[in-house]
């Protein structure tokens, strides 16, 4: 009877520890769910893009000598801006997000190929070394007019 009683105590202790462990894990997961780890500048409210920098004024912005930020918003069915002029040989930091559904951003003739997800800012740095007109296409099916969703980049 004595041993049985000890086992019972250990069993209760074990269950308590398990409960405590699950609570800690649960609270931890909840906290992470409320506030995802990482750089918060990578997330953006897709419904507030018109008042959220830099997407309130999409376009090319010079940030240094031969260095630019290309801020773009994808939407069904186009991009803002719908045309962008980029100086030849400049380092361009693309920052793109979607205001509605998942789109693509593929620049023909380059290896630029991004998925554009609402709520996220996708980044990529690229230097155009050849002048010309580059067609940008959406390569993620996004609805009825997906096929005609495009913009143009002019490098000179
Ligand atoms: Cu946007 Cu397909």
From TrEMBL:
Alphabetized InterPro entries for the sequence: Ba3_CcO_II_C, CcO_II-like_C, Copper_CuA, Cupredoxin, NosZ/Cyto_c_oxidase_sub2
Chief localization class?
Answer: other
Cytochrome oxidase subunit II copper A binding domain location is 65-156
Alphabetically ordered keywords of this record: Copper, Metal-binding
The keyword Metal-binding belongs to this UniProt entry's keyword annotation = yes
Origin, by domain of life? Bacteria
Report any Pfam family annotated for this entry: COX2
Show the GO MF annotations: copper ion binding; cytochrome-c oxidase activity
Q: Name one GO cellular component term.
A: cell envelope
Compartments annotated for it: namely: Cell envelope
Name the catalysed reactions.
4 Fe(II)-[cytochrome c] + O2 + 8 H(+)(in) = 4 Fe(III)-[cytochrome c] + 2 H2O + 4 H(+)(out)
This molecule's function is given as:
Subunits I and II form the functional core of the enzyme complex. Electrons originating in cytochrome c are transferred via heme a and Cu(A) to the binuclear center formed by heme a3 and Cu(B).
PANTHER family documented for this protein:
CYTOCHROME C OXIDASE SUBUNIT II (PTHR42838), NITROUS-OXIDE REDUCTASE (PTHR42838:SF2)
Q: What name does UniProt use for this protein?
A: Cytochrome aa3 subunit 2
Natural source organism: Paenibacillus naphthalenovorans
